[in-house]
Amino acid sequence: xxxxIEAVLPLFKQYGKxxxxxxxxxxxxxxxxxxxxxxxxxxxxxxxxxxxxSETPRVYRFLxxxxxxxxxxxxxxxxxxxxxxxxxVMDTNHPDRLRxxxxxxxxxxxxxxxxxxxxxxxxxxxxxxxxxxxxSTGEILYRLLVQLNGPSLPPSVARGxxxxxxxxxxxxxxxxxxxxxxxxxAHLIECGADPVDIYQHVxxxxxxxxxxxxxxxxxxxxxxxxxxxxxxxxxxxxxxxTGTKEEDTDNFTTYPMSVEGxxxxxLFLELRNGVKISFRSKGDIPINELAKEFGxxxxxxxxxxxxxxxxxxTIRQQVLQTAYKYLDTTxxxxxxxxxx
Length: 340
Prior knowledge:
Elements: H1 2-14, E1 17-22, H2 28-43, E2 47-52, E3 69-71, H3 74-83, E4 86-90, H4 102-107, E5 111-116, E6 127-130, H5 137-149, H6 155-168, H7 179-190, H8 195-203, H9 208-219, E7 222-224, E8 229-234, H10 236-242, E9 264-271, E10 274-281, H11 287-292, E11 297-298, E12 302-308, H12 312-323, E13 338-339
Parallel strand pairs: 1-2, 1-4, 2-3, 4-5, 5-6, 8-9
Antiparallel strand pairs: 7-8, 7-13, 9-10, 10-12, 11-12
Helix pairs in contact: 1-5, 2-5, 2-6, 5-6, 6-7, 6-8, 9-10
């Protein structure tokens, strides 16, 4: 990764027009990384457009007090993408996750840089700054910005990076959290990131509807295979009843994984035209391999898939049956489904 960082450093110094983007339904890692890089570029006189396919979730809007992040509008934003010198795609390495932005990004003459920590990148960029062992895109970007700027990062940059790392490590409790990550975060706090304020914005600003949605989701909790697999489901009716959106399900995967004895957890979210599936696991269970069987991907212990034109009932049954082979082979194939 060090050589990949060195290869792109001159691009941030040489060029003047940048477009930054991240994946559909952006999370704290993608948005925090976008804002950190944007703040650095703006502070050095660059022209920056931050354009995402999806609207910024409410809990992350504190990162963007000046409302610089735009929800993609083809009539307004296609020209900015076309005339950019550099396009930086963060926290995804597959351009199809940019949805309707993809064709505009791909036909632009801009240099494309991918900064990410996921496996199996697609061949769409000229430069890849990828470390699949990193906790987050924010961690990778931190290393890049320290080389660009030196150790004294502006507070706004530090806030974005800390938010990215905090959210993608599940508040520092996921695998790959090591002493170095805490050293990085200590440095970001020294540079002005406020860990209390950031945590409160992300985790303590839930709407009443989101709390009700969580309650309904927990009622759906079931276990399989002698209690080693837990799964939950969210339907469109539940979203309508509680006045919530897909973004309000962020971090709900925590709950099935919190059940004693569970080593794999799955969240099924019914979409208007398909199903989103979030997979989590503990230890040596390669849950990303299960995700791949349904067109998804991700990390060994955290992955996802999004399927279109399928029903929740059908896909849930298929996924749960397929999940068996990734669990302990001593389990009975006929383990009963238990209401948790």
